Amino acid sequence: MRAVALVLALISSAFAYTVLTPNGSQGWTNQGGQPLTWQRVDTDRLNFTVLLTNQKVTGFEPQILAALVDGSLGNTSLNAPSGGWPTGTNFRVNLVQDDRNLNTILAQSPEFSILPSSSTIGSYVAPFIVPVWFNSPGSQ
After folding, report:
1. β partners of residue 115
2. Is-annotated flag, keyword Protease (predicted)?
3. pTM for the whole thing?
4. What are phi and psi of 126, to 5 degrees?
5. Domain for residue 137, yes or no?
6. Residue 40 included in any domain
7. Based on C-alpha coordinates, what's the Rg of the chain?
8. CA max distance for the chain
9. Is residue 125 part of a domain?
10. pLDDT by residue (tens digit) across 99-119?
11. d(Cα 95, Cα 76) in Å, to the nearest integer?
12. Which of 92, 97, 108, 120 has the fewest CB atoms within 10 Å distance of its CB?
């Protein structure tokens, strides 16, 4: 009986919200809105709250990024939390029931990184090298 219940629980969890991005190969930067994409099935809740977590950083408090997101959209852009985007590794996005039930996780992303924006690299100007010709002795 327990085995049947376990199998049913695993099957039903396979057809629930799934976070597509961010993921281990497509993280975020610390500038501007960041993309969140997901899949859902008709039996999933109609909305959810997005929570940014990092259990490997001591003292990092989970941060609500968006509440009452319309699950039928499949994607949204998330604004930075107050204080701006943190940077580092081992972040996760949790889709949770609502802002009062942060431990009721509907889906969880794989770990991903939030990296500093590369926009400052674009303002770098490479030095201009001027060729210099030397006259060798005996040349005119």
Report:
1. 29
2. no
3. 0.74
4. -70, 145
5. no
6. yes
7. 24
8. 100
9. no
10. 999 999 999 999 999 999 875
11. 13
12. 120
